[in-house]
Structure prediction request, 264 residues.
Amino acid sequence: MKYILMMSGTKADFEWYTKWSKQELQAHTAFMRDFSRELKDSGKFVGAEGLAFPDEARIVRAGSKGEPITDGVFPEAKEFLAGYFMIDVESPEEAYRLAARVSAAPGPKDRGTQPIEVRQVMSGPLEDFS
Amino acid sequence: MKYMMMMSFKADKESMSKSIKTWPKQDVQAHIAFMIGFNKELKASGEFVAAEGLAWPEQAKLVRAGRDGSPITDGVFPESKEFLIGFWIIDVETPERAYQLAARASAAPGPGGAPLNMPIEVRQVMSGPPEEFQ
Prediction:
């Protein structure tokens, strides 16, 4: 079963990252790298990506002729995907255990744990319908 | 440059009443056929990196580490929360090309075969952590 572990935050959350000390950022990055390596070694790694900051985000819709209409204004409360891990595990419980590990990734002392959204990844297009 | 194109929706009553689950079968089939054709086209042009569809929002869990590191799961979300339902990662030369492709996805057929013109969030995918993090 494939699962996605998603890290998200508002614009304010992203700005807060830029205030971490170099040491805190390095410890965080090292944790993420080691976690990826561990997933790869155990055969559970499917993919991992990090996204650009929200100020680069655009919402695109098709106009009446199919042309792109872009918009870069978002509500303050909007949560932006910051990055994800995709994993292949035996059970949802295993996905939750791994998500808890990511939740406790190191940061500034007062950071606390981070919420990680976990959802299954379907193997086909809208397989509920096929 | 790698870009992610994201489809998201809210799981409140109004949104769910219009969800694909409520569409006639032939409209669903046309929508899926469009998605399959779009992926094929991206593969043929060498712009395809990945595409995934996620389980429905009712299966979503928010997980945090408890004191001993054990997972604490929660399945209650605010009504305003947007759930990622699927995404593409594409490899293109310019952001404008990413926006063009997002507009194509936006116009995927919906009920009655009419273009959905759904919002697609587009953002660059970084190839590694920023240098200053390393």
